[in-house]
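User: quick one
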Amino acid sequence: MRLPCGIINKSYSQDTAIVRTNLQWLLLVLALITLFTFPYWASPHWISVMIGVWISIIGVMGLTLLTGYAGQLSLGHMAFVAIGAYTVAILMSDLNWPFWAALPCAGMISGCIGVIFGLPSLRIKGFYLVIATLAAQFIIVHIISRWDSLTGGVFGLSVPKVTLGGFEFKSDFSYYFLAMIFALIAILIAKNLSRSRIGRSWIAIRDNDIAAEIMGVDPFKYKLLAFFFGCFFAGIAGGLWAPYLRYLTPEQFTLMGSVWYLGYMVIGGMGSIMGPIAGVIFITILDEFTAEMVTDLATGSPVFAGFVQASRYIVFGLAIILFLIFEPRGIAHRWERIKNSYRLWPFSY
Amino acid sequence: MGENGIKLRAENINLSFGGVEALIDVSFELREHEILAIIGPNGAGKTSLLNCINGFYRPQKGRIMYEGYDLTKVSSHKIAKMGLSRTFQNIALYTGLSTLDNLMAARNIRMRYNVFAAILYFGWAHREEMKHRRVIEDIIEFLEMESIRKKPVGMLPYGQRKRVELGRALALEPKVLLLDEPMAGMNVEEKEDMARFILDTYELKKIPVIIIEHDMGLVMDIADRIVVLDFGRKIAEGTPDEILANHAVINAYLGGE
Amino acid sequence: MGRTLVKTLSISILVIILMTLPLLIACSDDDEKTENAPEELPDIHVGMSALVTGPYGAYAPITWGYLDYMKDLNERGGIDGAQIEVHWKDCQYDVAQSIAAYADYSKSYDLVAFTGMGTGANLALAERCAEDGIVLAAIGGEPELIWPAQEWVFASSPNHAIGALGAMQYAMEQWDEGRVARVGIAYPNNPFGQSIIGPIEEYASELGYEVVEKQEFELTALDAVSQSLAFRDDEVDIVYVQGTAKSVAVLCKDMDRQGFIPKMVIGPLHVIHPAFPELAAGTGEGVIGWNPFYLWPQDMDNESVQYWRDKALEYSSGDIVSEEDPYMSMLYMWGLSVGVLLEAGLREAAAEVGAANITAEALRNALENVTNFKTGNSGFQPGIGFSPSNHEAYSATSLMQVQDGVWVRINNMFESPWKFAE
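Assistant: Done. Structure below.
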């Protein structure tokens, strides 16, 4: 990373800091102000969309640690979101636990089950691991839809509201802050993990697992640690989903959802913390945009309704294909390049 | 340890893959203070021997004694913690990381902070990181890599990547350094630099070095002793002068009978 | 160098535009509806988390039926002059998207009613509607939604259990073997599939049959060998298959392949699709489907069916019906039935409190007073009515059968034996 002219590192700790220049501080403060005031000026629709974005960011952040950093491809991430969601739902409704105690449990249980499904990663990798994680998706959702006495089976179960003191997180307005604060904490944790010795060991395993082992990285420990954190984040995301949706059915946690999580990550950029954030926001906006387009066109001139039905996916798919052609390394990479060219302007050589 | 200056002793190593015998009854010793070169034609089993020392291959027979442990029964990452560090014939860097982070990744085994500290980062983990950063900066300075400190290693030219690999091996604070063809594919200038780094390391750190190398002139210059392998067997061992006069070696290299 | 720069710039701009898009859309939302002159009656707002695209896009005609009914209602003068404004968005059968749409519309407008798509969405929406005091106008579906009656949930047409029991009653009337009929059920493991098992088993002794075999059978299954063999080994007489046209066709073909021809095969309204006989490749002959609506072309003489066929042609909503393909989708009728429910409730409410004062509360109370509501436009179904203990519009069905490769009506609407437990 390059620094703008006149900024000189005077200590190692300054060199590794995330926010270094005055401009960066300014942007950070502005961004935080925007995020915290968002529900005051945005339409209700966008508040509810943003709640989904925050929660997805947490889940995709987990997948980024697991797949983007540690290189362990998972096609069953939605199942771990489901574990988190059902854990919170069951603890809150059956045992009357407060949300604040149920949520960490959701993360821990999801993480521990993730470790179990991560065990095959010690022997297999690549496409073979994808199939093993695919098994997680099917087994977990299957168990959830069959264990009627605990999960309500295919008819699902309802989830109580989140309360804090006497306050109920009932409206989208209040839930936005709940989701955002957890997402910001998740981003910070992911960033800290990624720049610590743990993150470096994950990348070492991802880039060259043989060399990593010979250079002292215990693959057993770090692969399972990656599965734990990846699924822990998924569990937290699920735990936040449950009281927001207030009703859970197994059909909310599909294979397609897992595939989309991978999609968010690939489009955002795999090995970076910015990646999931950019990916989730980009896809959500694109999705909203095409949905808006369908509604508008179909309302205005129903003659096109049939055509419009099909065009939503065509536009959606086309945008993603174009994006991957022009920016195969994801939005985060593009963002880095924009930053670099800004810093070096006007002498870019 | 302590047995009259022997750092590492390989005894009757036998390694085979299916029907192919890669190493047959190879024994050698590495002394406390020496540069030991392993030479031999292609396919002689040189890299296999290093892989056995690293615990990456498990020989079917034989022992490799180091500090009282049999390395053939210790897993690779623990061997690294015991102080055996190496470079690879085909560069095996972590391409997604910068030069600095490649070296820092090797410090992993010396860093003392746990997962919870990593999550919080500020405080304990940060102090520990900065402490190790100082060690890494010394290595970067020593290997003259300041200008590529923050470049992703995937984008570096071949010669520099070899240098980063040496840096990574040093970052482990090794007690024994294993170098697998550190100068392969380099031009004369780069080879001279690399040879200088190896000799400086040897002088400064006072650690024994095992080096696999094809450039005979260079090997004769820097090695204290040489082990010669041919088709998995040790055919000679001795000082450079002894090796140069050895008939078996000459036959192996020139293909005579 | 120049080209790279242009590329970099253009992609950067694209990214920036896409990043700032939510702001633009968020800002543009507010200035939509200011056209109404002040002296006019206020609009009545209803919402829908519609289903138009996505994996379940085949169910889009429900949305078109609903929208067409509302459009037609407004053209007919609305509710005593008050126009109905429908707020809808394509939510692709997705619970999260449905809830987002609900949150948006319920906050932005004074909604009196909301319609969701899919069991998961409806179950989740039911809780929110109850909390906010908004009527959930659901299409008929899972009995779990309306039994027991929830304060704010109303269903526009019979649920799966009503149809299934109506069909079973008919089957027993035809049964002349002089012994207890052996029934086998094939169902997918989801709310749609499981909703019929309990009722069919519960009514077994009353109607005079015995459930001897239950087989799971997914809607997307490509073969039904194990199910067919199980039915054959248990000497099943009547197969009730809770499936779609495609899945029922798969089962029919595989039973035929195993040399097993049950006396009767019955499916839900989804099976009544003109393509079914072709999908089943001749093995679908005699299959019965229950049907709570009259529809084109079997009921051409029904005026309301004729009316809606012309309307569908006029509005061309989602290719529901065309001159070349003289077939009206069951799903379209389903959508229309939600419109009938809303019209019934709104008219009753207008009579009680006046069209200008209709609130969700007024609509809810009015709906419970609706009895036998029927207009010239809603003759494609029986008259509808609700009571505090019954929130289902009606509980009658009729049956259709594949005869010589086409669906033929075999009886008129009759009351299903299903009775609500009080």
